[in-house]
User: Fold this.
Amino acid sequence: MISDIGTWVQLIVVGSLVAAHTGSAVQTGLVALATFMPQGIASPVGGLLADRYDRRKVFATFLMVQALVTTALAVVLGMGVRTPLVLTVLILFASAAGATGGPSYAAMLPDLVPPEELMAMVSLGVYSWNSGRVIGPILGTLLALAVGPAWTVGFNAFTFVVIAGAVMLLRRPFAPHGSDGSVLEQLRDGWRAMRTTPGCIHGLVLLVLFNLTVVPFMGLIPIYIRAEFHGGTGLTGTVASAQGVGAIIGGVAITVLATSRQRSMMIRRIVVFMSCALLLYATAPNPAVAILAAFLLGMGSSGLFISASSIVQRDAPHASRGRVMSINQASMGVAYGLGLLFIGSIGDAVNLRSAFAVGAVLLPLGFVALTLRSRHWRAAVDGTPKHPQVGVQVRTGLA
Assistant:
């Protein structure tokens, strides 16, 4: 949670600096894009490392790399640099390190708890991330006013050291069975395991759709608040915090409901709920309504993320779990980047209200297309299918 607080401190503070410096939705979105887009390139590498070496050590190593690069970002800000390209490149390198270690983290989780507690385990990660979303913007605003952006980002660098220490306190190995063959063959095996496991591929498609249509609003909060409500870092932080509070409540709710309701039914209702919440956010007449809409979006977003992510982790084969999770992480990163550019471009060409309305319409349309394309999506999402052997073709309903 300490590390997640630092990440949100940096995202809000640097995003607000770029929004004030450029006034562009696309350039503001690039800061958030640099935070998440490296998943598309670095995650597959991390997946290979997670399936070859001790996952605990891989994760801790790349946390320390993040600490070093983020320290460099703090130094640059301290020198007075505000050029979006320079800031984005440094954030890109730090995020690439995080994306490389991410699959090892995700692959460790199913080894820590029994299968029936996996959704609750994923929920803990969501609580941590969104606690950072709640506390981070508030703390970032206070730190930026008190000590300036450079020391604020320096705080984020320190948080990576804290979490690396926490990971190394786990006094047990998380070694995979190992993988043979060339890098290309290993990547192909990982993709084959993802594609031929019904729960994994359906969870992946749901997360990609979600990141293309809804998630971009998060990275565009600074420019939307500035453009529509003439707000600064304070109001931006309040909106982001409201979303975080909603995500925590939504995470608790989905974990409780999952014990008595089918996951397919919950996902269907969440899609409708998020579409309505995004429309409310797009048409908000004042900051109060925008804050309420962000709270509702946080609830729905965490519900869908926990549901879909736990499906992928639940069904991923152990030997290739690192690669499967890296494909999942990479796909979400690429989808989020494309969604940011798409929604941000509409925002610059027309306005962000129209852009968010487009996302609100595309989400349910995409979900309907998925359910029509895959007749067995409910069984894949609700069930616990056996892991097919890698290399065996299995009909999933998406092919």
